[in-house]
Amino acid sequence: MPPGETAQVAQILRAATQLFAALGYDGTSTRQIADAAGLNIATVNYHVGGKRELYLAVMERAHQAEKAALEQALDRLPGDDPTAGIHRLIDDYLDFCVDNPEIPALWMHRWLSDAGDITELERRYVQPLFAAVTATMRPIAESGLIDARVDLEYTMWTVVWSVHGFAKGGVLDDQGRRRGAGDRAPLRRFRAHLHLTVHRMLGLPGDPR
After folding, report:
1. CATH 1.10.357, domain 61-202, yes or no
2. Is 183 helix (H, G, I), strand (E, B) or coil?
């Protein structure tokens, strides 16, 4: 629980997070959040605010969690073996999204124009994180390890699109059943595919398998 956050506020934000992740901002009402938290609307409004304030608090919480995880991952990236570091960064990001599936879900709703009247979140949250990854990757690219033709930002987006899609939608098995990130076999297969894809996109030396 973040500093200064009461147990009741945490309870409200957990309920709001689950509903916004499942239904999106546009599909969720304050009453639904209050009911899920086991409180009345007046109590929710008193502690956090209306629907917009709830959503902004949820996205801030999600951003802080992702920022902390990414900073830790980037701190481990530089080293004697940049190739291994890049693969470790892929694993760290995938593991974060699998462990926190509500966060990819929140952003995927925004990709589908959810909460269209709240426009500042990408500039405030997404762009700085992308800039941090690019700044860390740029010296590796300039060292000649990465193919000079590679667009680093689009490579990063490719990872985000793939990981969010898998974390949210999973894959279909031979029987047409949806298998999610909680299933170890599809997760292991997707992880191997992601490593191979990024390795080849960047033109890294060696074989990642």
Report:
1. yes
2. coil
